[in-house]
Amino acid sequence: MSIFPKRQQKQNPARTATPVRPRPQRGGFNLRGRLMLVCGGLGLCSLALIGRAVDLQLVDNEFYRKQGDERFLRELEIPTTRGMITDRNGEPLAVSTPVESIWANPQELSRNPDRLPELARALGVPADYLTRKVLQRSDKEFMWLQRRMNPARAKTILALDIPGVFSQREFRRFYPQGEALAHVLGFTNIDDEGQEGVELAFDEWLRGKPGLEKVIRDRRGRIVENVDLVQPATPGRDLTLSIDRRIQYLAYRELKRQLLESGAASASAVVLDIATGEVLAMANVPSFNPNAVETGNRDGHRNRAVTDTFEPGSTAKPLTVAAALEAGVITPHTIFNTSPGWIANGKYRTTDTHNYGVLDTTGVIRKSSNVGASLIARRLSDQQFYDFFHRMGYGASTHSGFPGESPGSLPAPSRWSGTSKQTMSYGYGLSVTPLQVARAYAALANGGRAIQPTFVKGERNEPKQLLDPKIAAEVMKMMQTVTEPGGTATQAAILGYHVAGKTGTSRMAENGGYSRKYVAFFAGVVPVDNPRFAMAVVVNNPTQGSYYGGLVAGPVFHNVMEGALRLMDVPPDDIDAWLAAQAAAEAKARHGKPAPTFANVTAAPAPVDDEPGNDDVQAATP
Description:
single chain
């Protein structure tokens, strides 16, 4: 085999004439085709993007719109005012004033720690306290810095332009009458919600309904556009009370004066309009400032006129007499022998301060004889006695609508001991509120018809006939002798007017027995011929001077009712007494003696006696 290549032989011309097709080369490409492919792909992508954009912008855009709104669109609450409370004459008693509350976004505020000392100085708080407070809430988006701030001061703080610090409009309650009406009105909390008194009882009526609006805020929380009013704010409705602020002030002033003079622990007074049942005044001392609730004594918030109960003492005697007159077991002229000034009651004695001897029914009331009341009660059955007192409203709420009102206590006969009825006849063994006493006396003055007390002017409750009008009139005439010479409450008399009333002095129950602390009462009606006002006064534990009802509570009744009669232009029903007093004053002036003041003219001589405390039921029989 040769290693040399063979020489190519010359091709046959016939064979070379046939053309040979060239083979395609593997490394070549179609540029045009590829361009068309790429352009087609890009076109499809563009169509897809356009379709998706159309879908997101026009068809299915809710999700992203919601995401955008969450970043900038906010629904803000529009604060609204609480309804105004006025007295019966339209004078404002509770109003809402606009204030500003400063709040912050702790996340944003914590990113500017160098501004915290400046903010602390503006708020009037220690810088370390504010720094600690912000750091503790650094994961939150909201915190209050200071609420209910004067708008001018809030504006000064916002002018510092500290990032993350904002203000919000709120309303704060203001009470122009202060302590004088605190127990009736109550107060609201920092969120303007009623907490006590009328503010609580009528909270739903007074409270407005906040509105809603949509706004756009920038990244710093500032409102840049008001988008839409979702719901307009509805202000609270105004409330007109039956209270007369002038009579209320008189009652509060006289109670406070008596509290200081007698060294008493507390005192309460209630004034009712006899014809309508409207509460014209309800005062208590000690009181509190409703404009600064947090600074007062919590115990002073209690409206003692409706929440606290006391044994009524001798103010129960007119009811005992009325029950016996209704039962027909006595008449106004029935004679009772109260000698020797005491009567047995089980192992105890019921005593009088003096041996009054023989008294008729009127004399029992005038002299406030415990023995006489006991003799009258013995003529009644247990059920007759209980039914009458219960019918007059004792042991049941007056349904005045005031929060926390106590129904008092009137035990059923099945729970009585052998001495119960006799002690209850002069006001022991049962408990009542001052409002219950005032309501019962108003019923006697109103011809035996009781009207449910109300704090709302114009609210008319149907009267309920509890007692025969003739019997009610007879009891009223007996009660009138109490304020006349020889009675136990001459200091409650008012010149020019006939006053019917009853004193009461009871010992306070303590540790299962009775202490040497006393409660002084006076309840009365004026004028007798055309009754207009019923008032009950309670002075709790007087420690200086006398503790008898006629000497402690009687003057409060006199001063308040004298002013109320003048303010309400009530005509006198005892003009002869007024003319006689004026003539006497003029005669003294003509003889060169200084003319007495009106107060001196109206003052009556001090009573010579009054009922004692509970010595009558606690003294053991010898």
